[in-house]
Amino acid sequence: MNFLEKINNRFLRTNSHLCIGLDPDPQKIPEPFGKTPDQIFHFLEEVIEATSEYALALKPNLAYFEALGLEGIRLIEKVLKTIPEDIPVIADAKRGDIGPSSKKYAFALLEQFGCDAITVSPYMGYDSIEPKSQGMECSFESRFGGRCNSSGKGLSDPGKIRADAFPYSRNRGSGRSIGEDFGSSSGRDEGALLDQCLTQHSLS
């Protein structure tokens, strides 16, 4: 079963568009859980249990786990094992590199960690995306200006790649469309900062 089939099946079961982010910042873990890796695990375990009935997908942000060092890598391995099999897991990694390095990122997250999809950052060009898309499911991290926006403060920075409506994220400079090239293995990760952006995609 590929990612699109899995997430469609999940939607039919839940009738939900809710994607739960797992971003374990020790400074924001509520009491009485605490800040050690084991305590953070128990917190995330409860989040997963409380939302598993409603979530369309779960999206662990690798930056927060990696910031904990080796303990963080062990932590995400434990967390992934607790997620019910029918819930799609999107690795929020925002990887972007070329050639062999790109393939290794994809292999690590999709094969070794067993995630269903990954976010990628396409700013280094199509050769930073294609290795992840050859026989692998990807969710494209889109931090584009115009109709596709980041949730960060730099969304209006000049020089950002602009994008057309979901699912065809187009680099206007090259005229190539992610959706046209990669079809059902591509998607958009949209920063929900602007009302008009959400309205546009809800009508697409």
Features:
204 residues; alpha/beta; TIM Barrel; two-stranded parallel ribbon; 10 strands
CATH topology of the largest domain: TIM Barrel
Describe the main β-sheet briefly.
Answer: 4 strands, parallel
CATH architecture descriptor name of the largest domain: Alpha-Beta Barrel
Structural class by secondary-structure content = alpha/beta
CATH H-level name of the largest domain... which superfamily? Aldolase class I
**Beta-strand proportion:** 15-25%
What level of helicity do the residues show? 25-40%
Q: Low-confidence parts lasting 5 or more residues at pLDDT below 50? A: 135-149, 157-179
Q: Can you count the beta strands?
A: 10
How many domain units?
Answer: 2
How far apart the termini lie comes to 26 Å
Number of helices: 8
Shape label: globular
Per CATH, the class of the largest domain reads: Alpha Beta
Spatial extent as radius of gyration: 17 Å
Placed side by side, the strands forming the largest sheet appear as 3-4-5-10
Spell the H/E element sequence: HEHEHHEHEHEEEEEHEH
**Mean pLDDT metric:** 74
Give the topology.
Blueprint: H1 3-14, E1 19-22, H2 37-51, E2 57-60, H3 62-66, H4 70-82, E3 90-95, H5 99-112, E4 117-120, H6 130-133, E5 139-141, E6 145-146, E7 162-163, E8 170-171, E9 176-177, H7 178-182, E10 188-189, H8 195-203
Parallel strand pairs: 1-2, 3-4, 4-5, 5-10, 6-7
Antiparallel strand pairs: 8-9
Helix pairs in contact: 2-4
